[in-house]
Protein: Corrinoid adenosyltransferase
Amino acid sequence: MKLYTRTGDEGQTSVIGARVRKDDERVEAYGTIDELNSFVGQAASVLVRSGSAALEEMANRLILIQHELFDCGSDLSYAEPAAEKMKVSPEMTGRLEQWIDEYEAATPPIARFILPGGSEASSLLHVCRTVGRRAERRVVTLAASQACPDEVSKYLNRLSDFFFAAARAANAGLGVPDVEYERGAQVFRRRT
Structure:
């Protein structure tokens, strides 16, 4: 099998059920998810390299998320999404919520905005968070003009929250404090 097909040389590509421009909103959406997936893989590698058992478990979760991001891209690749063919489910989003709650319980209360940083692992998870938010925005743009499965945007929204909680948990697990935005007031209170 050759890696190049020459079918995209004229600025067109195929989605399931149509031929579109390479800058089509659908291609932008699943392309941004693919970019996110690359950063998630990098973050997982750094977590494993840390040697921490708790962070290795987080890395395993990231690998599962990589598969789910492929599912998101698959769902978005249909020009006309059919419910019976979609892979992203509410259960996937619910699992992210459980992990968010678990990480939030394992970190110090947050009072101020947090800057990306602290440890290398946390910094990369913040990169995942911001690219995930961009992917979510691309899906919202797509949904405004074309058929788009609802669960993908819900999953991506929760995924960015997961990356924030995981970034804080990575710092806590490594004994590295979060970097607080020092010019900001105390704006958060931990929910009980």
Notes: The two ends are 56 Å apart (CA to CA).
